């Protein structure tokens, strides 16, 4: 029989240790390979779903840009119409405002002159206004004037 020396025992222990280490590394590499395959599948699925989503998002952004351009054009048209209406209003006011005020003043003066001549005539009954089935007395000024004459 052969006696086993200390060096041989140490060699066997080192060989067993290396075998166990290589086995653990092989298991770890196998799990890592599975994880990488699963990750690759996941990335492929996400890519397959993301590409159409990105295309839809791009279409939506283009559509929104078109709508914003339309709204901008409408807003500028509204601004132009508003400035034109303002200019027209100013023109009408300056053209007709002065003469209309003069005509109104003239009419008022004529009414005053005509009513001044009728002071000698007997006073008429005050005018009454009908509002929704009710009779409302004439103006208060007429009542005060009539009261002072009596």
TrEMBL record:
It comes from the Bacteria. The chain crosses the membrane at residues 12-32. This is DUF948 domain-containing protein. InterPro entries: UPF0478. Keywords: Membrane, Transmembrane, Transmembrane helix. It comes from Streptomyces marokkonensis.
């Amino acid at each position: 029989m052969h006696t086993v020396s200390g060096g041989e025992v140490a060699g066997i222990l080192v060989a067993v240790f290396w075998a166990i280490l290589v086995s653990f590394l092989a298991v770890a590499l196998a799990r890592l390979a599975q994880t990488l395959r699963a990750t690759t599948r996941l990335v492929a699925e996400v890519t397959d779903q993301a590409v159409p989503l990105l295309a839809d998002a791009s279409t939506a952004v283009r559509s929104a840009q078109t709508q914003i351009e339309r709204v901008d054009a409408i807003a500028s048209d509204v601004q132009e119409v508003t400035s034109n209406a303002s200019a027209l209003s100013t023109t009408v006011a300056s053209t007709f405002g002065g003469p209309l005020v003069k005509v109104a003043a003239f009419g008022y003066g004529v009414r005053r002159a005509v009513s001044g001549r009728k002071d000698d005539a007997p006073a008429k009954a005050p005018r009454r206004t009908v509002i929704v089935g009710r009779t409302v007395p004439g103006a208060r000024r007429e009542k005060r004037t009539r009261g002072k004459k009596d």
